[in-house]
């Protein structure tokens, strides 16, 4: 399980993703790309869960639809059929069949950037295989007190700020959020965001990617944000509850 950190509004879409490939215990085993770009369709695809199946999912979608708009219109039914027919394919590739997929791109017909998320399982208010469109997607969502302390939640809403700065702040909070590995109920909780922050930018003109931040995480080790010699410093955006949890994990 990874993160979904996306801004899509007006003429710009940004996706912030990390590169840590974890095993079931939360140990970093590889550096991986978690966003697949489809420049000819001016869109990008990312997923939480089934990250190893992402290239296959992206290839299937690109082969089935001639545009981002067509993918948004018909992708839900296509993904449901593909999932039911090839569920073992996703499971074999990713170690678990469940996935949450986001499609972000430039809509030619609506003249704007959009982000649409779909899940293979039901969520409150969102049935399985139903697209939900949002201008800002953040999952896992850090605790409300952490968001407020970091200035990212004001009167119940995320304040307007420069999109890149917003996403970098959000992914730093996600890095400090303990999350079930693989997103499965009862799974061990670990820090799951690490390696590098890769920013994917989408506009009407096309797509670009770059590394915006690098952390000093190591292969073969768990991610311990802000932990030094068993202690957790008072970093902005870390709640007392999260700090205690981080100390227990060290």
Report on the structure:
The chain is an alpha+beta fold and 250 residues long. It has five helices and 14 strands. The chain has helices at residues 54-64, 68-94, 144-149, 163-175, 240-249, and strands at residues 4-9, 12-17, 20-22, 28-31, 35-38, 43-48, 100-107, 112-119, 132-133, 136-139, 178-180, 189-191, 196-203, 206-214. The chain has a five-stranded antiparallel sheet with strand order 10-1-2-13-14, covered by helices on one side. Strands 5-6-7-8-9 form a five-stranded antiparallel sheet, covered by helices on one side. Helix 1 (54-64) packs antiparallel against helix 2. The longest helix has 27 residues, at 68-94. The two termini are 21 Å apart. Mean pLDDT is 84; it is low at 228-250.
Labels describing this entry:
250 residues, alpha+beta, five-stranded antiparallel beta sheet, 5 helices, 14 strands, 27% helix
Task: Count the DSSP helices.
Answer: 5
**Strand order, largest beta sheet:** 10-1-2-13-14
Rg over alpha carbons: 18 Å
- Tally of DSSP β-strands: 14
Q: Averaging pLDDT over every residue, what do you get?
A: 84
Oligomer: single chain
Gap between N and C termini, in Å?
A: 21 Å
Contiguous low-pLDDT stretches (5 residues minimum) are: 228-250
What is the N-to-C order of secondary-structure elements (H for helix, E for strand)? EEEEEEHHEEEEHHEEEEH
The portion of residues forming beta strands comes to: 25-35%
């Amino acid at each position: 399980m990874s993160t979904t950190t996306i801004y899509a509004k007006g003429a710009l879409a940004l996706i912030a993703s990390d590169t840590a490939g974890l095993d079931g215990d939360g140990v970093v085993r590889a550096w991986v790309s978690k966003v697949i770009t489809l420049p000819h369709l001016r869109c990008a695809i990312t997923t939480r869960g089934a990250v190893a199946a992402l290239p296959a999912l992206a290839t299937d979608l690109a082969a089935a639809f001639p545009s981002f708009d067509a993918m948004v219109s018909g992708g839900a039914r296509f993904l449901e059929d593909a999932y039911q027919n090839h569920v073992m394919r996703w499971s074999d590739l990713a170690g678990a069949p469940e996935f949450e997929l986001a499609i972000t791109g430039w809509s030619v017909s609506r003249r704007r950037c959009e982000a649409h998320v779909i899940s293979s399982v039901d969520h409150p208010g969102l049935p399985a295989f139903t697209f939900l469109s949002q201008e800002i997607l953040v999952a896992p969502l850090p605790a409300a007190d952490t968001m407020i302390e970091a200035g990212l939640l004001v009167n119940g809403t995320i304040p307007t700020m420069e999109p890149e700065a917003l996403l970098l702040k959000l992914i730093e909070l996600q890095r400090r959020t303990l999350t079930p590995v693989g997103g499965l109920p009862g799974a061990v909780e670990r820090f799951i965001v690490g390696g590098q922050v890769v920013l994917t930018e989408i506009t009407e003109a096309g797509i670009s990617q770059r590394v915006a931040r690098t952390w000093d995480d190591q292969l073969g080790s768990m991610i311990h944000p802000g932990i030094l010699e068993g202690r957790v410093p008072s970093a902005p955006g870390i709640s007392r509850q999260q700090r205690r949890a981080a100390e227990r994990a060290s």
